[in-house]
Amino acid sequence: MRYQLLSVLGLSLFCLFFSTPSFAQHATCGFDHLYEKRYQEDAEFRAEVKKFNKLVVEKKTSQLISSGVVYTIPVVVHVLHTGQDIGTGANISDDQIMSAIDNMNDAFRAVNYPNTSDAEIEFCLASLAPDCSATTGIIRTDATGTGNYENIGITGGSDPNLAVNEVDVKNLSRWPTDQYYNIWIVTEIDANDGGNGIQGYSYVPILENNDKDGTVMLYNAFGYDPDGSLGYELKFYTGENETIKHETGHYLNLQHTFIGDSNGTDCPPASTDMNGDFCEDTEAHKRTGHDCPSGPLSLNDPCLCPVGQINDCTGEVFGPVIHNFMDYSVFTCMDRFSDDQIARMRTVLEGNRSSLITSLGCSDPASLIGAPVAASCTPSSTEPTENTNMGIWNVSLNTIDYSSGATYSDNISYTALPDGNGGGGDGYVNTCAGTELNIGGTYTINVTTGAANPEIVTYYIDYNNDGDFEDADEYLGFVADASNGNPNYPEHLLDFTIPGTAVADTPLRLRVISDYLNNFNDHLGDPCYSPQYGQVEDYTVKLASCDLTLSNISILPSIAQGETEMAWTIKIQELKNVATTGTITVVLPKDPKYSFVWDETATSIGPTTVNNSIWSLDTSNDSFYIWTTEESILGNNSTTLGFVVSYNPGSTTGVANYTASIVSGSGGENNFLNNIDAESLSFFSN
Ligand SMILES: [Zn+2]
After folding, report:
1. Rounded to an integer, what distance in angstroms lies between the CA atom of residue 107 and that of residue 335?
2. Based on the domain organization, do 602 and 492 belong to the same domain?
3. pTM for the structure as a whole
4. For the chain, how many structural domains are there in total?
5. How far is the CA of 218 from the centre of ligand 1 (A)?
6. How many whole angstroms from 333 Cα to the centroid of ligand 1?
7. Closest residue by Cα to residue 78 from 156, 154, 162, 163
8. pLDDT for residue 10
């Protein structure tokens, strides 16, 4: 379930210049200048911005608010200290970090923030590292010696007197930007000694820059302790934790509410103008928060929020915009995002940043298969590019149904990191997704690839668990795209049988490699081949020499997106090497959000083959659609039913819950390990 729209990441520098205690000078920020300069000069950037804004308008804010679907973003916090003990100075404590994340969640879920709508966006400290091991989501690195970090901190070019070190510093610790929201905690920004000036900065998710993507935060601006009672390393004007909420707004494609105000001297243009913020519910205004008539600022200074003052851009008393997280208003003033802003953020999570919400970064490591031994080689794409749109889109095998992100953009544009993080290089993804299979079982694996160009996919499993794919039977085979790339996401289906010699009960590495059809001629069977345009993805399988007397049914719903309708399919699988017999029932609650017409003769729905003719649909129940079949499912086999869903007028996104069950006693088998299974599926409209 993902979008290919706008699948690359952005460049514009945003920075948040918080108030200086004395307000002696007006704040400046590189954002307006850099954004507008790039917008004027870079036609591709301009096109992507327009495309995104059109998408938001089409979706309508009303559809995106209170959708009932919560998106969770895995976060990794990289603490870049200079040798301090944990909890001292820039090496801030776990508690301080968690207070910041908790407060972000409160603000984005409207908990203790009664003036904002619930954005239904949450943040979790990562529990699963890129190598599939357990993690706290907090990585501490001594950055001394990199780009003069110990003297100037990080600098991205705002100060022409400082040598830019941003990428070198971020290279010390970065996790794949398509799977994690990277937050770097730094000692200084532009040699500000952790003091006034820029407190943090971030990047919009438009156009490539994965080596910078994420947010930089001063160590003493990241944490929530409004009254200073917890002893965190915070300044008296940063304890509300407003900077990270503001920067995360940028990260999710929000602009300043005052964008286009010419450094606070002009009233900005209309929201829908290129120079506006594209949110019609944020009134035109000049940046606020730096006009406090009396200084110095203190915690209880009453003059900070210009409530009741006249907005000289409207001639009327200020509306809610002065409380917006994306204004430059001071900390006691900020408490909300507008509904249009929330719609923009949710739209980007359904588009450019959709790989974050399908990331496994916050999975319980114990719930996964585990990590296989290290691979002897990790090939990477030599020329991944948006222009060819080649690479792996989705991989499905048994319970695996995984889309790592857009095709070409996985892990693009940075090379392997010294500590092994980052997945090893361009276009390589170690997904951590896994499934349990049976020795002797026959399975079908499928990889869908990018549209427009034909690709070959090769398949490998490290059956003897020695880290390579060179041993007998470990090359499963290849499948060429016979469609010549014409349909969206052509399939590459391969049947394979697991040999009796395979290692059981141990995580084993599964590898898939894709590349342009014509490139593969000399490389079929080479598991270390670095594709030119395609990608390499690794998964995990664990093999059981299982008890073959017990059935284990599984249900697996999926969606293929369309512009106005969606292809829904439900796959019922027998996971073990024994037939499932009896009456099999699938239940789907009725929901006024959508409707469909059942086609009992259909053999395919969207891109998926279905067996609708063996299923009977009963619509007479008030609450449920009920499908039944008396057909057996052979061991390690499956049957699929499907239908095309249309949204009903006025409906929003939602969740569909499915249940599959076997009614025992009606067939030859009465002994079930698991005769009922349930899954749910989040869906959304285009
Ligand atoms: Zn900003």
Report:
1. 8
2. no
3. 0.67
4. 3
5. 14
6. 15
7. 154
8. 28
